[in-house]
TrEMBL record, chain A:
<dbReference type="Pfam" id="PF00037">
    <property type="entry name" value="Fer4"/>
</dbReference>
<dbReference type="GO" id="GO:0022900">
    <property type="term" value="P:electron transport chain"/>
</dbReference>
<keyword id="KW-1278">Translocase</keyword>
<feature type="binding site">
    <location>
        <position position="139"/>
    </location>
    <ligand>
        <name>[4Fe-4S] cluster 2</name>
    </ligand>
</feature>
<dbReference type="InterPro" id="IPR050395">
    <property type="entry name" value="4Fe4S_Ferredoxin_RnfB"/>
</dbReference>
<keyword id="KW-1003">Cell membrane</keyword>
<keyword id="KW-0677">Repeat</keyword>
<dbReference type="GO" id="GO:0046872">
    <property type="term" value="F:metal ion binding"/>
</dbReference>
<keyword id="KW-0004">4Fe-4S</keyword>
From TrEMBL, chain B:
<feature type="binding site">
    <location>
        <position position="407"/>
    </location>
    <ligand>
        <name>[4Fe-4S] cluster 2</name>
    </ligand>
</feature>
<comment type="function">
    <text>Part of a membrane-bound complex that couples electron transfer with translocation of ions across the membrane.</text>
</comment>
<keyword id="KW-1278">Translocase</keyword>
<keyword id="KW-0479">Metal-binding</keyword>
<feature type="domain" description="4Fe-4S ferredoxin-type">
    <location>
        <begin position="359"/>
        <end position="381"/>
    </location>
</feature>
<dbReference type="InterPro" id="IPR017900">
    <property type="entry name" value="4Fe4S_Fe_S_CS"/>
</dbReference>
<dbReference type="InterPro" id="IPR011538">
    <property type="entry name" value="Nuo51_FMN-bd"/>
</dbReference>
<feature type="domain" description="4Fe-4S ferredoxin-type">
    <location>
        <begin position="398"/>
        <end position="427"/>
    </location>
</feature>
<feature type="binding site">
    <location>
        <position position="368"/>
    </location>
    <ligand>
        <name>[4Fe-4S] cluster 1</name>
    </ligand>
</feature>
């Protein structure tokens, strides 16, 4: 009895010793040297593996950072300047600072303003519907509404608005990894600088059709009237193919263009309400009412100056961080 | 036993409603929108300007490269604008808009030429004339004909196959053309045989067009080297590879062309266009279009000028019936739904199909039940269910290894799928991506 116990213990112990020796030899023989810096840099990176930097994941980006001489071209959009500064300290290399950006949706053609003229019964992904068809509306530039961008967002920063059928970007959660930009077959999503308090002014349309055709297919389309270009004192607005574009580098967020846009295709977000007096001087009465309301609602979104009579709407839009699009449309129906 | 291809294939209801309707000449439209990209390859380059007067048959857009084609004015008139017009793809494409000159007699003269059997031109001149007249494959693929006929020295070539199969349900354009222009088509075949120095030609016709088969058989008795092959009715026999296999028993290699097995295939419509181009110097400015649908008042076949808006054709057959759900450019199997009735007829429009509510619905896509029907019917021997999953999940390299690029997009798999899975949509998508990946790799 004691013998068999002894033998089995001895056998197992010797097996263990042999295995340990084999493992030791193999680990020495096939040792792969890895620069310990890579693991350290990887620690600094956000670990989101979003591929926003161009590398497939954070580990390979860390590898690239360590093994490239000049890393001034490399940038982690999720970590931003803070992370890149840490990386620069660790590696003793120079990095370039970049202004933080955020994704914006350059289409506000929801179900209510852009009528469906045809029906698409194929697979509901934007990529396929753009390939075999031009979408269910008459606008061949706008959002297809099948949510490829939402599907690729790793950070939960996007969701589809049931009411409008358009994706909504949650600015606070957006890490500017540009996954949605790459996923969109229509190139509707643009990266624009992230300003203080998330103030933004941009053209919410990509329709290059002539004014009449654009307007017919979508009520909030840019019709290429050049009014915004004329009113802009900083030359930030350029017209190309019947479409306005606001250069974020030159724009001073003065919002003059927003006021003159006849189709409300220029979007402003998170601005405090304008002083109503100024508006009265400039605009005819009918328009003034519209704008005043709009301004109030924008204020509502920000949560400032929330008046009791519009409190319901405050609740409704409390989740929506930058959805002025919806608001301005509501305003129009109200007016 | 009639000849056919061995692998896969289906037999959808034929619905050839218009097979007894003579080809009528459409009234000349008031305005034509002529797209510059009517063929596969590089779009043509516009050579006219706004307000220019153009004569009927004048070149208005010149071939933009090797795989490209000339485009001619279908009517005499004035170029009113160079505009973007929605074409059959659903997207706006560059178009030349011409307003018809109501006073110009050439717009209204009789264009049925008498039969002319003597072939005067030499082979090189024939090929040049085909290039100049902007002839493209009228079966639907619109591949420029001169490229197909540009055979490299030393290539072994022994057969010309004429595709009179018209395996798509509903369409009867080729069938009517064969009945009404049989003599001319035979002359057209002889023109190509002379140009390519070929001794043998076979006209392949499916057995549901018995009248055309017997007509051709009676004509070719006098001709040397031309045969007629009656084929079993099976879709997609009109595909080049299937047709070569059915008639000659030769297997076209994958990713290869019929030329690799010594065969050139042309559609009967193309042959007739070549006949007119060579004998009467008439460019490709009109084609036969079947306008059909079960509920249409008066479905028929028409000679239509390129660029005619489809709404003119619809008006000609008595307007859209109630409950119309879908307009298809082409046949029900391979055709594409069109966005609105302003879409112009192009060189590739073989038919306009008006489908009602109950026929148009796709059915809700369910899970794959592994029944294998799609594999059974695939004429290329592929596994459509696998290809769909691979391209849906993004395994494009694996899809490429599984020969996704050899798919001829006939739609048989989607047709038979009992779960209504959108097989072809995903395969097309996968093909697109694989093609892009391959071009970036090279």
């Amino acid at each position: 009895m004691t013998d068999s116990v002894l033998y089995s213990v001895l056998l197992l112990a010797s097996l263990g010793v042999v295995a340990a020796i084999v493992l030791y030899v193999v680990s020495k023989k096939f040792y792969v040297y890895e620069n310990p810096l890579i693991a350290e840099v990887d620690e600094l990176l956000p670990g989101a593996n979003c591929a926003g930097c161009g590398s497939p994941g954070c580990k390979s980006f860390a590898d690239k950072l360590v093994n490239t001489e000049d890393i001034s071209e490399l940038f982690c959009p999720v970590g931003g300047n803070d992370v890149m500064k840490l990386v620069a300290e660790k590696l003793g290399k120079a990095v370039t600072e970049k202004d933080p950006t955020v994704a914006v949706l350059r289409c506000q053609g929801g179900c209510d303003v852009r009528p469906k003229t045809t029906e698409y019964q194929g697979p509901r992904t934007c990529a396929i519907s753009a390939m075999i068809y031009s979408g269910e509306t008459d606008c061949q530039y706008g959002c297809l509404g099948d949510g490829d961008c939402v599907a690729v967002c790793n950070f939960g920063a996007m969701y589809m608005d049931e009411a409008t059928g358009l994706p909504v970007i949650d600015t606070d959660k957006c890490t500017s990894c540009e996954a949605c930009v790459k996923a969109c077959p229509r190139d509707i999503i643009e990266m624009r600088p992230r300003n203080k308090r998330d103030l933004k002014v941009f053209v919410g349309c990509l329709n290059e059709d002539k004014g009449g055709i654009a307007k017919k297919s979508c009520a909030v389309a840019c019709i290429g009237c050049s009014k915004c270009e004329d009113v802009c004192q900083k030359d930030a607005i350029s017209m190309n193919n019947n479409l306005a574009y606001i250069d974020p580098a030159l724009c001073t967020l003065c919002r003059k263009c927003v006021d003159v846009c006849p189709t409300h295709s220029i979007i402003e977000t998170n601005f405090p309400p304008k002083k109503p007096k100024k508006v009265v001087e400039k605009k005819p009465v009918a328009k003034k009412v519209v704008e005043k309301k709009e301004v109030e609602k924008v204020a509502v979104v920000k949560g400032e100056a929330a008046k009791p009579e519009v409190k319901k709407e405050v609740e409704k839009v409390a989740v929506v961080k930058e959805d002025v699009t919806v608001e301005s449309k509501n305003t129009k129906t109200d007016a | 036993m009639l000849k056919t291809f061995p692998k896969g294939g289906i037999h959808p209801p034929e619905n050839k409603i218009t097979s007894t309707k003579e080809i009528k000449r459409m009234t000349v439209p008031k305005v034509v929108n002529v797209p510059i990209a009517q063929h596969i390859g590089i779009p043509a380059e516009i050579v006219v300007d706004k307000k220019d007067k153009v004569e009927k048959g004048q070149v208005i857009a010149k071939s933009g490269g090797f795989v490209s084609s000339n485009i001619h004015a279908p009517v005499a008139g004035t170029v009113t604008k160079l505009d973007l017009v929605i074409d059959t793809s659903g997207y706006k494409k560059q178009c030349i808009v011409i307003r018809t000159d109501a006073k110009d007699p050439s717009n209204f003269e009789e264009v049925d030429f008498p039969l002319k059997t003597d072939i005067e031109l030499e082979p090189a001149a024939i090929l040049q004339q085909i290039t100049d007249c902007g002839i493209v494959g009228l079966g639907g693929a619109t591949f420029p004909s001169q490229v197909k006929l540009n055979v490299r020295e030393g290539t072994k070539l022994d057969y010309l196959i004429i595709n009179g199969v018209e395996c798509e349900p509903y369409l009867t354009a080729d069938h009517r053309l064969m009945l009404e222009k049989a003599q001319e088509i035979v002359v057209g075949i002889k023109i190509l045989m002379k140009a390519l120095n070929l001794k043998k030609a076979v006209i392949g016709i499916e057995n549901n067009k018995k009248d055309a088969i017997s007509l051709f058989k009676s004509i070719i008795k006098k001709e040397d080297g031309i045969q007629v092959a009656a084929l079993q009715v099976k879709y997609p026999q009109g595909g080049e590879k299937q047709l070569v296999r059915a008639i000659l028993g030769r297997e076209v290699p994958k990713n290869g062309l019929p030329l690799d097995v010594g065969v050139i295939v042309h559609n009967v419509g193309t042959i007739f266009a070549i006949y007119e181009a060579i004998q009467y110097n008439k460019p490709l400015i009109e084609r036969v279009v079947t306008v059909t649908g079960k509920k249409l008042e008066n479905p028929s076949n028409f000679w239509v000028k390129i660029g005619t808006p489809i709404k003119d054709l619809i008006a000609e057959v008595g307007g859209l019936p109630e409950g119309t759900r879908k307009l298809v450019n082409g046949g029900p199997m391979m055709g594409k739904a069109i966005k609105n009735t302003d879409v112009p007829v192009t060189k590739g429009t073989s038919g306009i199909l008006v489908i009602s509510e109950e026929e148009a619905s796709r059915g809700k896509a369910e899970n794959c039940i592994r029944c294998g029907e799609c594999v059974y019917v695939c004429p290329m021997g592929l596994e459509p269910h696998l290809l769909m999953n691979l391209s849906e999940k993004g395994f494009y390299e694996k899809a490429s290894q599984e020969d996704i690029m050899t798919c001829i997009e006939c739609g048989s798999c989607s047709y038979v799928c009992p779960s209504h899975r959108p097989l072809l949509d995903y395969i097309r998508f996968g093909k697109n991506i694989v093609k892009k990946l391959e071009t970036t790799k090279n």
